[in-house]
Design goal:
The complex is a heterodimer.
Chain A: H1 3-12, E1 15-16, E2 23-24, E3 34-36, E4 43-46, H2 51-71, E5 75-79, E6 82-86, H3 90-98, H4 101-128, H5 135-148, H6 154-167, E7 173-176, H7 178-196, H8 199-217
Antiparallel strand pairs in A: 1-2, 3-4, 5-6, 5-7
Chain B: E1 12-14, E2 21-23, E3 31-32, E4 39-40, H1 47-67, E5 71-75, E6 81-82, H2 84-93, H3 97-126, H4 133-146, H5 152-163, E7 170-174, H6 176-194, H7 198-216
Antiparallel strand pairs in B: 1-2, 3-4, 5-6, 5-7
The chains are: A mainly alpha, B mainly alpha.
Chain lengths: ~220, ~230
């Protein structure tokens, strides 16, 4: 099959299922609905309303919530007169100090770097996709976001906090710190951001600008 | 019913990053997605080999992860190292069976189920095409979705190590098993990512067309002629 023929096929077919390679003629889901592969039932596309607006707002909220969530203590523990606090960073620090470099790197990556990176990338994608100068960096950012997506584990960390809370409660006095509420809110916002972000709307925005921009130049 | 149209047979492939349909070069090499710049292949390069390698690595590392202690809780000068299983048992004996169940699922059931699931998928692709590919796909989605929850134990250890640090009165230290366990989780997550589910359907289609060819002696790729 020649390249020309392939190009022709690419205009007829709009999308291939990424899990079973089935060719489809309809590329996008209608607004507020999702597109499911008829053969393997994979979710091909989710089309949330006002994706970019919601994502921009939510990721900015997430970034702001990150500041108190990382700086205030999440839990505090006390036995007799001795007490200690736990923040997002000092667990990593004490693991590092004990010599568990690989583990502390992993915990740092999954609980701080990846979620923070996701928020930053989404902020950049949502604001940056408005200007034509940033087309390539935004495309790269979307790619990075897809790679980083599953490594942000705020929800798992939250469950870890709860398990730690229950497990140690018979040993001493365990208290929730103010950071924990911010952390829980940040986790919620992170999950909502993941749900509301739809890369197709970024591509659609770029394509629309390219069309109108091209006409303007000509 | 007409045969489903596969992208690879038409020289097309979906970009795994942005899901754009990309025209593959005629020589069968790799292309770059014009939209997001990711590398596009018809199927993930060396998917089966990589998945096997990572799965076997994970299975081997599961031994030290379960045998070596993952943490030591010292309370009033006494305490002994606990492994993953003994940690669950302690929680159970303390009456916290709900938490014990969560920890058991996250750190024992999930890694084991994930490795078994990956092996099942690989065997289905290479040895025996699945009779119900939809079930294989469900298995794939479960395997790639649940992996991250196994990190629960590690997060808990990192919290406790910082929180309970009062010398002889009470202290928690991590153990060598936790490093092995962290590696198991990462390796199995990478294995699930490197597995290409489209291979399951390729195996099914190959069996289907083989059977059809035997039944009616039709040429194998009659369907590729262009019936929709």
């Amino acid at each position: 099959m020649g390249l020309g023929q392939r190009r022709e096929a690419a205009t007829h077919w709009q999308r291939a299922c990424h899990e079973c390679d089935l060719l489809l003629t309809g590329p996008l889901a209608p607004r507020g609905r999702k597109l499911v592969c008829p053969r393997c039932e994979a979710i091909l596309h989710r089309n949330p309303r006002r994706s970019l607006h919601y994502t921009a707002a939510l990721s900015l909220t997430g970034l702001l919530l990150f500041i108190p969530a990382a700086s205030l203590p999440l839990l505090s523990f006390s036995i007799f007169a001795f007490g200690a606090d736990n923040t997002l960073f000092n667990g990593v620090q004490s693991l590092f100090a004990e010599g568990y470099y690989w583990m502390s790197t992993l915990v740092l990556f999954c609980s701080v770097v990846a979620p923070l990176g996701k928020f930053l990338l989404l902020c950049f994608i949502c604001w940056g996709s408005a200007s034509a100068l940033l087309d390539r960096p935004v495309a790269t950012a979307v790619r990075w976001y897809q790679h980083l997506k599953e490594w942000g584990m705020l929800d798992v960390y939250m469950l870890g906090i709860l398990v730690a809370l229950v497990k140690m409660s018979d040993l001493g006095k365990m208290e929730m710190g103010p950071g924990l509420y911010c952390f829980a809110a940040m986790m919620l916002v992170a999950n909502l951001t993941t749900l509301s972000f739809d890369p197709e709307s970024v591509w659609a925005r770029m394509a629309a600008r390219r069309r109108t921009g091209g006409e303007g130049v000509a | 019913m007409s045969r489903p149209q596969k992208a690879l047979e038409r020289g097309l492939s979906s970009c795994l990053c942005c899901h754009k349909l990309v025209v593959l070069p005629a020589g069968g090499g790799r292309a770059r997605c014009p939209r997001c710049g990711a590398r596009v292949h018809g199927r993930i390069d060396g998917s089966l080999m990589l998945t096997w390698a990572l799965t076997i690595t994970g299975a081997l590392l599961l031994l030290p992860a379960n045998i070596l202690p993952i943490m030591t809780v010292i309370y009033l000068g006494s305490g002994e190292p606990s492994t993953i299983i003994s940690g669950v048992m302690q929680l159970y004996h303390a009456g916290l069976w709900g938490i014990a169940l969560i920890v058991f699922v996250a750190s024992i059931a999930v890694p084991v189920m994930k490795l078994v699931g990956l092996v099942l998928l690989l065997v289905q692709v290479q040895v025996r095409p699945p009779r119900f590919p939809l079930q294989a796909m469900k298995l794939y989605r479960v395997v790639s979705g649940i992996g991250r929850w196994s990190l629960l134990d590690l997060f808990m250890i990192s919290i406790l190590v910082a929180l309970v640090d009062m010398g002889a009165i009470a202290s928690v230290t991590a153990g060598p098993g936790s490093t092995a366990f962290a590696t198991v989780v990462v390796v199995t997550m990478l294995a699930a990512r490197s597995f290409d589910p489209r291979l399951v359907w390729d195996a099914c289609d190959a069996r289907e067309s083989g059977r059809r060819g035997r039944e009616s002696n039709n040429p194998k790729d009659r369907g590729a002629a262009g019936n929709v």
